[in-house]
Design a protein that fits this description.
two-stranded antiparallel sheet; Rossmann fold; 5-stranded parallel β-sheet
């Protein structure tokens, strides 16, 4: 595992797992949210998103966390390991809401500078709908790569912890 991507719903724990994996494996971590958002929630263009990722995936080792379905193929094609956090939506909504309260009017560590956390009902709805709208296409995509990549599905906080414990 030298080129790892983490995908999953908001609130699934991608950034936390990426950080812990980076520490354990001594690999640089790239949080797409921090790379794709400029201050005051101004997003970078799709072309810039592609260029940023193409530059990262040329490196020998990396961990990238984030979904961004429009550019996911760049990461999937370059990765040797794909970790999908398939966490139940109630846990994800709870965590996202908790994070919004914890970092309200502050920038969280895995977010772009100047992007203060806020309550966002559209984001909470996206998380709630994720199992119906995004999960099926991701699982289908992962099946396509199951013979050529190390595909890891983690379905609960306990499975994530066991995975981390086995990394050490």
């Amino acid at each position: 595992m030298k080129k790892i991507i983490l995908i999953g719903s908001g609130g699934a724990g991608k950034s936390t797992l990426a950080r812990k994996l980076g520490e354990s494996l001594k690999i640089d971590v790239y949080h797409l949210d921090s790379l794709f958002w400029k201050p005051n929630w101004v997003d970078v263009t799709k072309d810039d998103q592609r260029k940023i990722q193409q530059d990262i995936v040329k490196k020998e080792e990396w961990i990238i966390d984030g979904n961004y379905g429009g550019t996911m193929d760049i990461r999937i094609n370059a990765a040797d390991t794909i970790i999908f956090l398939d966490i139940h939506r109630t846990i994800c909504v709870y965590r996202a809401f908790k994070r919004m309260l914890q970092y309200r009017n502050k920038t969280r560590p895995d977010m772009g500078e100047g992007c203060e956390e806020r309550i966002d009902l559209n984001f909470l709805k996206w998380i709630w709908d994720y199992p119906k709208t995004k999960r099926p296409e991701i699982l289908n995509k992962l099946r396509q790569f199951s013979n050529s990549k190390n595909v890891i599905l983690l379905k609960s906080p306990k499975e994530i912890q066991r995975f981390l414990d086995n990394m050490q």
